[in-house]
Amino acid sequence: MAVADDLERARAALRMINPAPYNAEAPPEALAGDITPVQLHYVRSNFAVPVHDGTLEIGGAVAHPIRLTLDDLRAMPAVERAVTLECAGNGRLEMRPLPIGEPWGDYAVSTARWRGALLHEVLEHAQPAADGVEVRFEGADHGSYHLQPVLPETNKDDLTFARSLALDHASDPEAEILIAYEMNGEPLIPDHGAPFRLIVPHWYAVASVKWLRRIDVLTEPFVGEFQTGHYMYEWPDRPHERVDLMRVRARITDPAPGATIAAGTYTVRGKAWSGTGPVTQVDLSLAGEGDWHPASLEPPKGPYQWQDWAFEWDATDIGRHSLRARATDAAGNLQPDVPPWNRLGYGNNAIEVSYVDVR
Ligand SMILES: Nc1nc2c(c(=O)[nH]1)N[C@H]1C(S)=C(S)[C@@H](COP(=O)(O)O)O[C@H]1N2
Ligand SMILES: [Mo]
């Protein structure tokens, strides 16, 4: 009963899109600040919140299999990073034809301060074998799957959430992959993966396995519903690709879409992020096609978090204006006008359009 009450309280401020498994978007105001409060951070789970026994096993192709508790992880050197997490399905509702999958609007994105032990240090203790190629991460959550599996061998009635990363990536100190046990200075709550979860900076959040229970070094690439079935870009005209780095994206946070503002100077504000970041330029358009004006972009406050931008708008023309923000990242990626359609509806980073009335 107490657990159910806690869950309900934690969920009260979100916009639910599915009660079971619980999936919910952040409210628009969650994007105003640098850090999203825990109660406003979006939640995406493929199964119900599981029971976790509090331990983490590291095994497979390793010289020293180990079993760690939360206290063991807390005893290791701790690192804290602000990390923007975005669901790969964010923006699916704007794709045409509408893909199957959870009907996410545009608010399955948030930024929290995650604190934990470094994955590469945990792996060093276990000593991966020389012929290791990938590392598999398993969550404690499992059960019957609410979506249609892509892989024919998937058992829809008893499926476990598991993902893998290349061993090189998982063991790279510079990747700063965390086994996080704190979010915004507090112990993780159940919806966000208590007692500990993976945080993979720069990647769509599917890689950040919650309720982490097992880590196995593999000598063959991992095949699984959440790795090679779902979370693949099924392009209509070219080979399928795995979902990995977050695509560059900008969002206007002020004025709110559909707002009415008084004629005069108005500071338009927003956020921008990219997994191949940092974002290097944001342009604003106040009319249709063409008409791009550079916004002033704040330098990143950290390597993995969204950036603020602002634009002084001389909003003197009475009437309706269509506003668009468009980001470019350090790798030269620019947002497209049209969502990059794929069958399962991932990675929509098309330029968003909102209108504002000047009175
Ligand atoms: N164990 C487990 N980890 C998981 C998931 C899941 O269903 N089970 N969902 C993933 C997906 S698709 C996303 S978008 C993020 C969401 O993290 P959040 O709920 O903390 O925002 O968790 C990822 N980690
Ligand atoms: Mo996701």
Give an overview of the whole structure.
This protein has 359 residues and is mainly beta. The protein has 2 domains: 2-242, Oxidoreductase, molybdopterin-binding domain (Sulfite Oxidase, Chain A, domain 2), CATH 3.90.420.10; 249-358, Immunoglobulin-like (Sandwich), CATH 2.60.40. It has helices at 2-11, 70-75, 119-126, 167-170, 225-229, and strands at residues 15-19, 22-25, 43-44, 55-60, 66-69, 78-86, 109-118, 134-143, 159-166, 178-183, 186-187, 197-199, 212-218, 232-233, 241-242, 249-254, 260-261, 264-273, 279-285, 292-294, 296-297, 307-315, 319-329, 353-358. The chain has a 5-stranded mixed beta sheet. A hairpin with a 2-residue loop joins β10 (178-183) and β11 (186-187). The longest helix has 10 residues, at 2-11. The model has no long low-confidence stretch (mean pLDDT 96).
Task: Fill in the keyword field for this structure.
5-stranded mixed sheet; 2 domains; Immunoglobulin-like; Sulfite Oxidase, Chain A, domain 2; 5-stranded antiparallel sheet; mainly beta; binds the ligand Nc1nc2c(c(=O)[nH]1)N[C@H]1C(S)=C(S)[C@@H](COP(=O)(O)O)O[C@H]1N2; 359 residues; binds molybdenum atom; 38% strand; single chain; 5 helices
Bound molecules: ligand MTE, molybdenum atom
Structural Rg:
21 Å
Q: Could you name the CATH topology of the largest domain?
A: Sulfite Oxidase, Chain A, domain 2
Assign the CATH superfamily of the largest domain.
Oxidoreductase, molybdopterin-binding domain
Q: Helical proportion?
A: under 10%
Which sequence of SSEs, written as H and E, runs from N to C? Answer: HEEEEEHEEHEEHEEEEHEEEEEEEEEEE
- Overall mean confidence score, pLDDT: 96
Outline:
globular
How many helices does DSSP assign?
A: 5
* Cα distance spanning the termini: 51 Å
Q: What is the number of strand segments? A: 24
Strand content: 35-45%
Low-confidence stretches: none
CATH class of the largest domain: Alpha Beta
Q: Order of strands side by side in the largest beta sheet?
A: 5-4-13-8-9
| CATH architectural arrangement of the largest domain | Alpha-Beta Complex
Query: How many structural domains in the coordinates?
Result: 2
Largest β-sheet summary: 5 strands, mixed
Structural class: mainly beta
